Amino acid sequence: MTVRPATAADVPAIADLELDNLGVDAWSEGLVREGVVGNLPTISYLVAEVDGAVVGHATASVVADIAELQRIAVDPGHRRTGVASELLDAVVALAREGGADRLLLEVREDNDGAIAFYAAREFVEVDRRRRYYRDGATAVVLRRGLVRGCGGAQGR
Questions:
Q1: Can you name the residues that pair with 124 across neighbouring β-strands?
Q2: With contact defined as beta carbons under 8 Å apart, do 43 and 35 qualify?
Q3: DSSP per-residue codes, 32-64
Q4: Distances (CA, A) of 17 to 65, 88, 107
Q5: What is the pTM of this model?
Q6: Are 48 and 74 found together in one domain?
Q7: The domain containing residue 112 runs over which residues?
Q8: Tens digits of per-residue pLDDT, 41-84?
């Protein structure tokens, strides 16, 4: 598996992953394209590739000392194979390189698997956003510190 920055050629695969994983909350192919080609200056797209096929993607924003994991999605046939972990590790590295001292994300409160995944990777709950998703579901805001003194990972 390879994790690399996304290119314009990856946009259709990323848009398909969005739809398959996020349904009504998926970002459109047009919005994905804007981010991938660099028209959204704080946004970075990464893809995970296996045998030449895009099997996962992550979208992150880094602004000053705060990074946000906006998206992470993995093809159902490649789940539980380490793809999400590799993508998350790449986002953490990207955030650190960009000068962030913490990484934030939102996850649906009813997504026990994702919450457990992030908890095992040193994320802690810091807030909740009621009616955050289109269907009215609540988002759990998670945070991982990226440097000493910022909580979570303690500078790893």
A1: 143
A2: yes
A3: HHHHHTTSSTTEEEEEEEETTEEEEEEEEEEET
A4: 29, 16, 17
A5: 0.90
A6: yes
A7: 104-156
A8: 999 999 999 999 999 999 999 999 999 999 999 999 999 999 99
